[in-house]
Amino acid sequence: MARLSEQGIRLSSMSPSFLNSNSTSHTWPFSAVAELIDNASDPGVCARQIWLDVVKIDDQLCLTFTDNGSGMTPNKLHKMLSFGFTEKGSGKASQQAIGLYGNGFKSGSMRLGRDALIFTKNGGCQTVGLLSQTYLQNIKAQAVIVPIVPFNQQTNILFKHTMCIYSEASLAAILHHSIIKSQEEILTHFDSIPSKKGTKILIWNIRRARDGKTEIDFDSDSIDFRLPEIHLEELKQGLRNSASLRPEQNIPDMYYSLR
């Protein structure tokens, strides 16, 4: 049954297919990475450090973004995973928020992979949320659904409140449909955030090229994410066609090296 407003008017819903089409605004994978870094750098988060890595979990390659910013409450996490919500104000000129339209995380994360878990803690509460195209496809969802589970940060116990039934249902969905299979694993990811406050993003089902290889080359350089050679040739031709690169010039590192 469709959700209704307090006045009984039918509410709009977002089709799950929009997660993929929205991500195509990033034609370059590093611009999607930049979106996630920008989010951690904004005045409302104020991360002093950001760590990027690629790890294997259950034989799946996963991108991780971890920061030591202010973290999020369950309500703020829900807004981040929803469309059109933002709490970023105009701020001072020296602290202007980078994104103001509440879309950066969704477009950036879904450009890099099909599925993402967000672990965040703000000093009193630690919350995990799932944004997953695979989950929505598996349950044949007609609208975007984002399971979110809050835990007491001191006791690691699921928060007991009037919405507890929804927390338990969300926990079941995350454990059944994500790369994390136990509550203990969830708590381990909270512990991997190196401060009392901060956020960790875990992205899997990483986008692959037509040859089956990951779109980003994680292997050629142990301290860098790079674009594969096949992309460099396409990029070089495109830059020369647009007269942005002379025939005798090499492509600047910034085009193919995240570092």
Kindly describe this structure.
This protein is α+β, with helices and mostly antiparallel strands. 30% of the residues lie in helices and 19% in strands. It is built from eight helices and six strands, in the order H-H-E-E-H-H-E-E-H-E-H-H-E-H. Strands 1-2-6-3-4-5 form a six-stranded antiparallel beta sheet, with helices on both faces. A hairpin with a 2-residue loop joins strand 3 and strand 4. The longest helix is centred in the middle third of the chain and has 14 residues. It starts with 16 loop residues before the first helix and ends in an 18-residue tail after the last helix. InterPro entries: HATPase_C_sf, MORC_ATPase. This is Morc S5 domain-containing protein.
Name the descriptors.
alpha+beta; 259 residues; 19% strand; 6-stranded antiparallel sheet; 8 helices; 30% helix
Helix proportion of residues, in percent? 25-40%
Q: Order of strands across the widest beta sheet?
A: 1-2-6-3-4-5
What gross morphology would you assign?
A: globular
Structural class: alpha+beta
Give the terminus-to-terminus CA distance.
49 Å
Low-confidence stretches: 88-101
DSSP summary: helix tally: 8
InterPro entries: HATPase_C_sf (IPR036890), MORC_ATPase (IPR045261)
Protein name: Morc S5 domain-containing protein
Pfam families: HATPase_c_3
